[in-house]
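Below: protein 1.
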Amino acid sequence: MPTPPPTGPLVTRTTLTEGLRQLGVEPGEILLVHSSLSSLGWVCGGAVAVVRGLLDALGPDGTLVVPAQSGDLSDPAVWSNPPVPEEWWGTIRATMPAYDPLVTPTRGVGVVPETVRTWPGAVRSDHPQTSFAAVGPRAGEVIGGHATDCRLGERSPLARLEALHARVLLLGAGYDACTSFHLAEYRIPAPLVQVGRPGPAGWEVVTEVSITSERFDELGHDFERDRPVVRGTVGAADVRLFPVADAVAYAERWLAMHRPREEGILNPPV
């Protein structure tokens, strides 16, 4: 049976740039992008065209930032997609390659961030599980100093993006992907969790703030209702544009009221 033709719309580098500019993306700004390539339609040139279109919209003075997470560098005891047999855990912990910002691939964030990670001139932060990658003149300023025991808190690029008045672009992605909300979790009472991962000297366990995107879709709905969020479409994708600082401030209040969490240790050391 022949494959049906794509339904479109047809998206090109140029139409993407024009759509972003019409939405309000400004040359020279810093933009944290969460994206879904498939939501756009049929993109001529795929992820490369999307990255070029984003960079064109930002211009030579703008900086593109994406999540470059590698959550598979974690304890196999907590894996569920898919799980692995318990008898493998010890071997996995002993042999898992440590994080290398130059070669460790992203996982679970889509093909556009992986394309940015490998882009000429891209830089990537140091956290082995929740890194960010960036391209542009302020990339080093955004990415530098990401503490390896602070996934998405005050010593992560999120706090730097907030201070630099960056904006978030949800390009076909939902609020469940909005990492800026996680920064708020570090500013309200939250439990701690023991996080296992491969380190430079072997398997290591660090204590971290517990983060979860549970109810972020509801949080996003209320945020969009109460705060000025630019909405539109690019190709077939629903797009939202808003300041990082607005998202964090709103999430601090919302999470404390609607999703309070008790302090303490959620799991014992591995």
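Below: protein 2.
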Amino acid sequence: MKSDRLLSILLLLQTRGRVPAHELADRLEVSVRTIYRDVDALSGAGVPVYAERGRHGGIALLPGYRTDVTGLTADESRALFILAAQGAHAALGLDTAFGSALRKVMAALPAPHRPAAELTSRRILVESSRWMGPPPREVDVSALQDAVFADRRLRIRYRHSGADAPRTYTVDPYGLVSKAGVWYLIADRRAVPRLFRADRMHAATLTDAPVKRRAGVELADVWAVLKRQVEVRTGGIGVTARVRRDRFDLFLRMCGNSLTEHPEDDGVSEWITVRLGYGVLGAARMLLPFADHLEVLEPAEVREELARCGAAITGLYGGTDRARP
């Protein structure tokens, strides 16, 4: 709608200052000619907006002009009050600020929208942690946050998974990502993108050196590359198995992240066929809790690995010479 577009232009100009017409056109998905027509409409409505042509021109408001119109629709108001990933605000030290911001937004909302927004905050809750997983460790990400916003290099002491001792790295941070309640530092090390779990850091020190990021690369770009690498690595060993129907829901909750294809289910038979991917052979041991409710069909190396684990368990618990309580 034109009225929504005019309000969007007004709010963008208040936030950004002078904005090129082509950038407004790209953001609002209209032509540059339409933007100039909208500017004329705003000016005719009494908004002190003007356009400067030329290489360094753009569209801007007269200095000092502000409006307190939020322009939020009912759905936009409700969306703001769905409290997603509440733990993220606490980890960043923004819990109090977030609550204060929501109260200010509530006060600025048009009166008809306030009841719906307040009800949404009581009826919708988003929990970022997964079922069947350990609670995430509390991590102080303040030093990481300082490096991200100060655009400074960071020296970290980091222990890799399976390593006995931490190692020291100097990295160029792009930002922080919270995934399923776990914080990650996304950074370049010698211009190569790396992923560092915050709960494996023994120390993090801000250096005096400015950050050296690759030109034109943003946090979202690096995260997409690293996430894809993890997902591809997860599928290193392909496994075909069948799961009893009465255990299938539990199987999906515990092992669903390892699925590489949609399960084969005719809706009738006792067994459902699944295909999974694991980075290393030992990772397939996560199938052991399903005992005789799951059978690996292939490959043979995974069947042999589970058989060895089963024999070791039998030897550990099946002996009669161990003292019993």
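The chain is about 40% helix and 20% strand.
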